[in-house]
Each structure stands twice: as C-alpha cells, then as structure tokens.
Amino acid sequence: MQAPLFLHEPTSTPTPKDLRDEILKSPGFGSNFTDHMLVMEYSSDTGWQTGVIQKRQPFKIDPASGVLHTGQEIFEGMKAYRTEEGGAAIFRPKENARRFNMSANRMAMPEIPEDVFIAGIEEFVRIERNWIPEIGDGTLYLRPFMFASEAFIGVRPSKNYTFSIIASPVGGYFSNDANALKLWICKEYSRAAPGGTGAAKCGGNYASSLVASAQAARKSCDQVLFLDAKERRWIEELGGMNIFFVFDDGSIITPPLTGTILPGITRDSILKLADRMGRNVVETPYSLEQLEADAQSGRLSEAFACGTAAVITSIGRLIGEEMDIVVGDGGAGAVASELREILIGIQHGARKDEYGWRHPVL
After folding, report:
1. I need a labelling partner for 340 at 20 to 30 A (CA). Which of 39, 159, 299, 358 fits?
2. Which helix or strand (DSSP H or E) is residue 211 part of?
3. CB of 120 closer than 8 Å to CB of 126
4. pLDDT of res. 3
C-alpha cells in the first residue's frame, strides 16, 4: 500500500464555534488564523517526507537555520472560496504550484511536485473549511511557504527545508475600503533589477520594499509605485500588486514580464478576461512621463492594481516629488469594476467558469 502524502493530527483544542463565528463576522485581513498547519520536511539525502496536518503552533528552528542568515524563503498567496453547496473551491492552483517551483529554482531550493503541492492545499482546505467566511467577498487566505532549515553558517544552498501551509479568514484587503487607491511614486528605491529576484515570490523582495511603503504611509498613500532600477522612468509594479492602464479607446496595457515583475496569477486572469471581452490588451513598457501626459490629456481613462489579496482595485491618484496625477475622475473605473465583478463571480461560483479555473475541493 502506498504511504499517505499527509497524516492528520487534529488539534485537541480547536477554536470554540461561537468564537470562530464571531471572528468570521469581521475577519479583517491576516490577523486571525485557523486551528491547523501543514508541515512537510525535505532533506537532500532523502527528499520530501510525509507531511503532517497538525495543530498550528510555533516552529522550533535552530538559531543557525539558513533562512535566518541567507534568507532562503519563498511563499504563495491563494484563496479558498465557499460554494453554495457548502463545499469549497480554490482558484487556478496549478498556476500557484508552477510559480512556487519557479521561485524555488531562482532561490536554489528544491521543487515540490505539483500534484503534491495541490494535494496539500486540498487536504488542508477540507480540514479548515469551516473557517471560510460567509460574508460578502470573504475568503480563506492560504499561505503556502518554504524556508531553509539546516543549521549552518556559510553561503551556500541549505540541505534541509520546511514546507508549510497556514491560513487566515479574510475580508477586504484595504482597511479603509477605498474605491480608488492613492499611490506614492518612489524614485529613491527600486523593488528589483535585471538578473535579480523580481519574478520570484520571495520574502526579500517584500522586505526591501518596506522602506518605500513607510514613505507612502507618511504621504497618506495606500501603496507604492516602483519604477525600473536603471532609468527610474518605466513603470513596473506596486509593492505587492501588478498594474494596468485603460485608455479612452478601450485599449488596456500592462508592463511586460521581463524578469523584474512578479508574474501575477490575477494579472494573467485579467489578460485573458479582457481579451475575451474584445479589448485590445498589450503588454508593453509604459513610462511615468507618458502616464502623466495621458492623464492630463484625458487619454488615460483609468488605472487599476491587481493581486490575489485585493483582487482588483482602481487607482485614482498618484503623487511624487513635484508630481500629482489624477486618473480619470479620481474614483473607481468602470472597466476595473466590471473585471472585478466577473473575476469574483467566477471565483465564488456565481458566474460560469469558461476557463476551468475553479478547482473544487469538496
């Protein structure tokens, strides 16, 4: 008999139902967590071991663990959606599995077989399905991640790794429920450079963006807009979201994936949906000065950001040193709103899934 991929060791102290129900009424984002975690260990000598879905608890890691010194760490962001039948579904998990392994390769870490990655997500969601909120767009945010766990001091890939999945019931990503974001245009710091880790979903990319995020917060902005590292003029992405621009002729552009931008799964979904809607969608470089000119002339009718956490959110204003750009009327854009409604409809099962994106779990 084949050994199971994952063992179940349910917690003996689950969150009481009344407390869980209270949390799910207003879950916020990323501040509450489910009862369990999946843990699976890797050794260069034996490969991946049987995983365990167990009580959520702190890791016990050695102070010399590689992740603490050379920063070998990657992660993914996914969501589980409640179905009308009482089950659950996840969205395009194969794409998350592929991107996870792409990130692993860039960070000199072992790949996880795609079927094992997806099976782990499925098993985990089955156990934690009661944590999926029923409110509005509420979902269960899933965080698969992997880190170097070998204890050593040196500059080389680790020989041991830990893969884990945790989850958090979530509502809206932006706490102020803004219908249009205000962005800080960052020219002092870069998110990524050619040959770097910009296309990998690793913690270092986000850590290096935090100083710019702090700048944005001081300017009362919601997010940071990063430019290219060389010329500081080509628009790349936000601190944690891809970006799109919509013009008065109905066309849409987004910066191309040249290795410095994360290949977002929501981004890819939008490209396919917009093309299906008959819009001319182009992946092409777009400069900050052109953005300013197009906004002033009215040629640029709207802009929006996208990602798993926030889905699709309009951009109403961008500010920087000696720069203040208002997009359209500064509010939510019609195209962004339509795309968001279609995408969320597919994810939650309210719309027909013509692409086979929804992956039933139960």
Report:
1. 299
2. helix 203-218
3. no
4. 60
User: Do the Cβ atoms of 91 and 356 come closer than 8 Å?
Assistant: no
pLDDT value for 1: 40
List, as one string, the DSSP characters of 150-169.
Answer: -B--SSS--SEEEEEEEEEE
Contact status, residue 243 vs residue 254, Cβ threshold 8 Å = yes
| Backbone dihedral angles phi then psi of residue 288, each to the nearest 5 degrees | -65, -40
Give residue 137's pLDDT. Answer: 78
Task: Provide the residue count of the chain.
Answer: 362
Tell me which residue of 91, 95, 65, 66 sits closest to 80, measured CA to CA: 91
Average pLDDT over residues 106-118: 97
The tens digit of pLDDT for each residue in 43-52 reads 999 999 999 9
Are 361 and 90 contacting, i.e. CB atoms less than 8 angstroms apart?
yes
Q: CA-CA distance, 133 to 123, in Å (whole number)?
A: 18
Q: Phi first, then psi: what are they for 201, rounded to 5°?
A: -95, 80
Indicate the residue type of 288: L
Express each pLDDT in 3-57 by its tens digit. 668 999 999 999 999 999 999 999 999 999 999 999 999 999 999 999 999 999 9
Contacts 24+ apart (CB under 8 A), 57-64: 59/162, 59/164, 61/149, 61/162, 62/149, 62/151, 63/151, 64/151, 64/152, 64/153
- Helices 93-106 and 114-128, axial angle in degrees (round to 10): 120
Average pLDDT (317-343) is 96
In contact, 24 and 134? CB cutoff 8 Å: yes
Q: Which residue has the tokens 């094992």?
A: 116
267 residue type, one letter = R
Amino acid letter for position 232: R
Write the pLDDT tens digit of every residue in 166-193.
999 999 877 655 689 999 999 999 999 9
Cα 97 to Cα 90: distance, rounded to the nearest angstrom? 12
